[in-house]
Amino acid sequence: MLNDAYSDIDSEISSTIKMNRQALKLIRNSRNQESLREEGRQRSLQLYLFRKYEPRSERSVQQNTTNFLCNNFGDFVTSHLSKSHVSSSKIRSPQRPQKPLASVLAVLPF
After folding, report:
1. According to the lineage, what is the superkingdom (predicted)?
2. Angstrom distance (rounded) from CA 86 to CA 14
3. How many domains does the chain have?
4. 59 with 51: CB under 8 angstroms?
């Protein structure tokens, strides 16, 4: 009889320990899932902000610089050559100098 009582108490304790362990696992999992969700939200926000502002502004600066250089290089060369007392008859197109680029660059004061 006493053994049966101890056995019942032992089984109760064992089942209580198992339930507590399961409850702890559930609590840990829910905390981990919440922290993973929060981490995912933070990463999503960072990625969104990066995509929204960083590349576009960087690309637009590069594109604007490229456009400026492409559009104004001929005008710069033309104005520099005209300041160097080169006759305008030698310059056929302000957008595209007819001389080879090496000879044009040799004249420029860099």
Report:
1. Eukaryota
2. 101
3. 1
4. no
